[in-house]
Amino acid sequence: MNNEPIHSLAVEGITKRFPGILACDSISLDVGEHEILAIVGENGAGKTTLMNILMGLYQPDEGKILINGREVHFRTPVDAYATGIGMVHQHFMLVPNLTVAENVLLGMREFQKFLWQDMEGVRKRIREISERYNLPVQPDAYIWQLSVGEQQRVELVKTLCLGARFLILDEPTSALTPQETDDLIALLKRMSSDLSIIFISHKLAEVTALSDRIAILRQGKVVYRGTTSGQSVSNLASLMTGHEVVLPCNECTGGSGETILEIRNLKVRSDRGFFALDGLSLSLQKGEILGLAGVSGNGQRELADALAGLRKVESGSILFRKKELANKSPRSIIEAGIGYIPEDRNEEGIVPPFNVRDNLILKDFRSKHFCKGPFFRFDETRQNAEELQKRFDIRCASLNVAAGSLSGGNIQKVILARELARKPEVLIAVYPTRGLDMGAEEFIHERLLELRSQGTAILLISEELDELLNLSDRIAVIFKGKILATMPTRETSKKKLGLLMAGISGEGAA
Amino acid sequence: MNILTFVVNVLSIGIPFSVALLLASTGEMFNQRAGVFNLGCEGIMSMGAFLAFMPAHLLQNTSLAPYANLIGIAAAIAIGALFGLLFALVTVTFRAPQGIAGIGLHMFGWGVAGTLFRYFVGGVTGVPGLKNLPIPLLSRIPIIGPLLFNLNGLAYAAFILVPASWYILFKTPWGLKVRAVGTYPRAADTMGVNVSRTRYQALVAGGMLAGLAGAYLSLGQAKMFADDIVAGRGFIAVALVYFGRWNPYLILGGSLLFSVAQSFQLAIQVLGIRFPYEFAVMLPYVLVIVVLALTPGSVTRGPAELGKPFDREKRV
Ligand SMILES: Nc1ncnc2c1ncn2[C@@H]1O[C@H](COP(=O)(O)OP(=O)(O)OP(=O)(O)O)[C@@H](O)[C@H]1O
Ligand SMILES: [Mg+2]
User: Fold this and answer.
1) What are phi and psi of A395, to 5 degrees?
2) ipTM, 2 dp
3) Is residue B148 predicted with pLDDT exceeding 60?
4) Confidence class of residue A508 from pLDDT cuts 50, 70 and 90?
5) Which residues, at least 6 apart from A374, have a Cβ–Cβ distance to it below 8 Å?
6) Contact predicate A199/A39, CB 8 Å
7) Element of type H or E holding A49
8) Do A15 and A98 have their domain in common?
9) Which domain holds residue A416?
10) pLDDT in the model for residue A369
11) pLDDT digits over A425-472, tens only?
């Protein structure tokens, strides 16, 4: 590894095409030493693609990369590491059935002996890094045992252990809790005194708080470059989307009073066997949005799974129009009229290798409308897809490409289109805007409010307090598998919710 | 009839039976840990059995006779490596569907071995094969001695391979890479691990062990060659890898269980108990299926990307 400092890194005229898509269109950017450059842009703008090119994961079709003014060619990630560039990927690059130390060792040749591995050396390096940057990790924990926030930390430590002096962070905060996000931002600020950083995020408040300079990408092109100081969030949002972004607000409060979904004393186990839901009760009224606030890992996932029929209910009941739904099959739950926007888009939301058209009828392919006897009516499925594509502004090369190749935001729009088009009576929406750009967020919020006004009851599970306060009629706080409090949105505040989410209730919250 | 003698008899046949399965499934375990399953195992074993048999057959009455077995074993390993390489080329470089490619490799190896055998040899002929090497002192322990310490060299090697491959898999950098490319190749790739190279290496190593398993069948077990000498053991070996949860020790247990069940059903037939022999023959296979069905699955241990080719620039 050469230890030459990276005084400047620049890309010039980078172009990358995928079948049917121009992902990067002659992009030029530069980053100086100890500088934090933020890259923002809509979903599918080409941010990740550009970073993958910088890491030697993708080969650009045109253009070059310059370090300290000299052109470099990265054929594999090893080349990029060797010059001191390291990246924390949008999707964690950690092997789940290996320990933290083993994951780090994978990239560290100097600790890989022929017949043995120098685990002590790796542990020592991990401890050094984690002490230096105050990033606590346990070297011998298995990745699958760690929470998302902890995995994020491991990713950072791993990248730093490999000797990165130039850090690329691709949406590092999208799955973090607000507290973890604040910690990370503070840490990155400190780190910028000995590193250069490229920071990608959809949360513009973070961007303005952290970065020195900003670049905005739209459809593969750089549409704006400038310094951060003096830029406001709303200004950036309109530069990014080309129009002014106003996140809609839920004005009228209170549902119809008619209870449609009643959850009583629900007990559900987590993957690790303990009761993730420990006697949870909650009721949902027609035409209201009930926000469920809470730090992730307090039972949200298990609740959503149980409601969708994907996890066994140990005891308690889920009454939908007085009919028991607990432990019913997902199909009967779907047919009863419950919609579901899952947390894990790629695993539960779509079938990634299926094309967009088929993914849009995943829940309705049996209906008379889409098939005739054992055959599909292809005209109908295509028409359905074209309509939804227009209505929900799904951006893809064609409706016949695999849904898994779309950008995160567009995958979310596919799911949303499918679920909303079915006009569900109850919609379970789990982190529906995670990883989405502001334009898409605005759009999804509008759709949710529209659905609400048509009488659908929505359970909105989220960690974003702004989102919850904007959209909900009532907010419930979940903590350790129980509902700590439920209150009308207008009677609460960020501060109050924050305390409740930390498990402090009653007098302490007053 | 004495129960103890019956048990000892069953074991004394069952334990040597397990060696070919153990070698082949350990090889297959390395393949699968790296994310590739090779259904061609059976074909490689056929080729290995044939090539190991040939020198012993041809050099029988020459001055090279003492080296014939060694030459044969080397040839079996070499052909296994070659077939593993071929399989890697097809499935890793050209990303062909692994199931189909494996069945093709099986038919190719099986057919070629049989054809060459009929062309060069013709009828059934025996070879001296491998001699047992009793281990001094240990082999004289009553009951256990003759069962465990009076086997041929390949058998000892196979049993030593169990802890050795556990060590390789879990304690060496190469084993770490193998596990990583079988579970999350993209992550391994971003860490600078060469996914294709690691898969090639694992497939070649797996092929060598399958070839060696074939050599054991012709030189150590049957001491002859016949078209159907492998008789489905290659496929059983694949099943045993799942059975053994990709762990060398559990695979050893599976191999022993299957082989002892096999020898047990033979013993029952010999005893002349009135029991339809067709059912006895089914016993070991049924046993494997039942145990496979009853062992709980675990996502955290197996190679999650088993069977999927890797392409750095593809998202799905
Ligand atoms: N490996 C690939 N194969 C085919 N198309 C791809 C591939 N990677 C990206 N694309 C396409 O290239 C475009 C840019 O994708 P990219 O992931 O870079 O967007 P992004 O800006 O990171 O979006 P997001 O904010 O959603 O992460 C998208 O339209 C995407 O569908
Ligand atoms: Mg991205």
Assistant:
1) -100, 115
2) 0.90
3) yes
4) very low
5) none
6) yes
7) helix A47-54
8) yes
9) 350-420
10) 87
11) 999 999 998 888 888 888 889 999 999 999 999 999 998 888 999 999
- Position B26 scores a pLDDT of 98
CB-ligand 1 contact for A23 (6 Å cutoff): yes
Contact A87 B177 (CB under 8 A): no
Contacts of B304 in chain A (CB under 8 A): 96-97
Find the residue in B nearest to A110 (Cα): B173
Q: Is the CB of A172 under 6 A from ligand 1?
A: no
**What CATH number is associated with residue A430?**
3.40.50.300
Q: Is residue A326 part of a domain?
A: yes
Nearest to residue B55, comparing CAs of B44, B43, B66, B39? B66
To which H or E segment does residue B75 belong?
Answer: helix B68-88
Q: The domain at B3-122+149-293 falls in which architecture?
A: Orthogonal Bundle (1.10)
A397 touches chain B (CB under 8 A): no
Q: What is the mean pLDDT of residues A470-498?
A: 91
By C-alpha distance, the chain B residue nearest A93 is B187
**Are A77 and B180 within 8 A, CB to CB?**
no
A47 Cα to the center of ligand 1, angstroms: 8
Q: Which of residues A198 and A177 earns the better pLDDT score?
A: A198
Spatial contact of B127 and B55, defined as CB atoms under 8 Å apart? no
CB-CB under 8 Å, A117 with B171: yes
Exposure string (b/e) for A96-115, b if CB count within 10 Å is 16 or more? bbbbbbbbbbbbbeebbeee
In a domain, A344, yes or no: no
* Interstrand relation of A371-372 and A375-376 (parallel, antiparallel or unpaired): antiparallel
Asked if residue A446 and residue A408 are part of one domain, the reply reads no
Give the three-class secondary structure for B269. Answer: helix
Same domain, residue pair A257 and A403? no
Say which DSSP state B62 is in: S
- Of all residues in chain B, the one with the smallest CA distance to A97 is B300
Residues whose Cβ atom is located within 5 A of ion ligand 2: A 48, 90
Are residue A67 and residue A153 in the same domain, yes or no? Answer: yes
Chain B positions in Cβ-Cβ contact with residue A58 (cut-off 8 Å): 312-313
Q: How many domains, chain A? A: 3
CA distance A351 to chain B (A): 10
DSSP state of A110: G
Q: Does A230 share its domain with A200? A: yes
| A403: DSSP letter | G
Tell me if chain B has a CB within 8 Å of the CB of A55: yes
Residue bearing the CA closest to ligand 1, atom 31: A406
| Structural tokens at position A370 | 């889409």
